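Q: I'm teaching a short session on how sequence maps to structure, and I want students to see two examples side by side rather than one. Could you give me a first protein with its sequence written out and its structure tokens following it? Keep the formatting plain so it prints cleanly on a handout.
A: Of course. Example one:
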Amino acid sequence: MRDRRRSEGRASPVPGEGTPMAGTGHDVPAHDMPAHDMPAGRGAPAASAAPRSGAAEPEMHALWEDRTRISLQPIAAPSILGLFGFAGATMMVGAWQANWYGSALTPLVLFPFVIMFGGLAQFLAGMWSYRARDGLATAMHGMWGAFWLGWGLLFMLVAIGVYPLALSPRIGVVNQSFAFWFIPLCVITGLGALSAMGRNLAMSAVLWPLAAGAGFTAAGFWAGSTWPLRVGGWLFVISAGIAVYTAAAMMMENTYGRTILPLFAFRKNQNIPGRRASRPLEYRYGEPGVKIGQ
């Protein structure tokens, strides 16, 4: 009877006693798992146990990757589209505001491009940033995409004669209602620039002059003064130029699989050209195979 109970209790294979792990592309015996993957007091490997933060050896990473199979729906970094869309609209409007070209009627020609490129494309990038779980990109692309949609819509209404031309924004003319558009932009973008310093200096460098440019533009339309608007236009162009560099760096990292143009991250290894910028699996969030951020 005792022998029968013993045999019945061992009818199902026990993980950790030479049985292969299920769900992997390669059958790896559980007793071959590293010690840090084995929970205390048991022979079964912990499915959620990942190598410690200091254990970055390729063998451990390959072992963890081989024993994990997760179906994902990865997306490209939304900020590539968002930054390029932002840069295109902001550079064109900023150059006009800085008096590099055009006249008072120039916004009536720019608004279709601004609506689609700086507005719709960037707003979509902000919404896709939700899937990348990037709070900073969601806020900045979503907010500035909505702003450019509103800017383009305003001048579209002026162009078709629905909005009174006398109330439309003009350089050197007091328009305190339009000035209020830029006040929340200045404050929220400044908070975004402060937050971006926790990621890399490239993104932060995009947002600091952008916040300052919004502040000068608000002051210019509030007082009806020309020089703050010119300064704001210059700052918008500077921000757009840095955005082009940042988006290009992210795009090249995606296509080459390594750093080409540094984003000046706070991790030294991420700034070395030719060095792989980040590992594809981020264990510390407890979700193997899921990359958080961009």
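Q: Perfect. Now a second example for contrast.
A: Example two:
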Amino acid sequence: MGTVFSLDVRGGRPDEVRAAVEDAVAGLHRVDEVFSTYRDDSQISRLARGELDVGECDPEVAEVLELAAEAERVSQGWFSARYRGRLDPTGIVKGWATERAARRLAAAGAAGVNVNGGGDVQLLGTPGSGRPWRVGVSDPLRPGGLAAVVTATGADELAVATSGTAERGDHIVDPRTGRSAVTDLVAVTVVAPRLTWADCWATAAFAMGSRQGLAWLESLPGVEGLLITAGDEVRCTGGLAGWLG
């Protein structure tokens, strides 16, 4: 998937957790093989060229495409599984794969799981008694600095995802035009229970721009957002403060 993953696992039976880690890592490699648009022989590339239909692909392909269709519906078209007219669900795959890996580890008995996929994080359980997971949100305008710290106090599951231009430049496309999104934003961070959706919502809100993106995030239940404009203006949803600390 062109990025680095890290896994922080606490508690559980060592042998069972070790086997789950190996399974989760193998699963991430398999996701890359199936969904990579940079591999000509991946199932998603062959599907895009019409060499396969969905029924001939691994079941995960249909699952991801159904999730992407739901994300497109909820975002009113601001999220899309197509990139410049070609099938490309990578905007949802990384968050989905990261969340899936985290849930595999939790199912193996781990008391606390933190899986980070390229800066987008799925948290489950806790790292220790009375200690919550904490996630630093990078400041896109001040390299090395933090814009906020998200604390998962009281949450059995929490995800933090950021979309923006600081790391990868102008890579987010406006689905309506097929060109780079014209937006006043440099970063959107979304806090939600599931990374599959947090990742999608951050991308969609970024493409919308600060005013529409903020209003839309406010309308989603259980979702909070931090939006930073190119002019260094910070805008937050009403409930975000409850996750900061």
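Q: What should students look for in example two?
A: Point them to this: The radius of gyration is 18 Å. Also worth mentioning: The helical segments are 14-35, 43-48, 59-74, 90-107, 195-208, 210-219.
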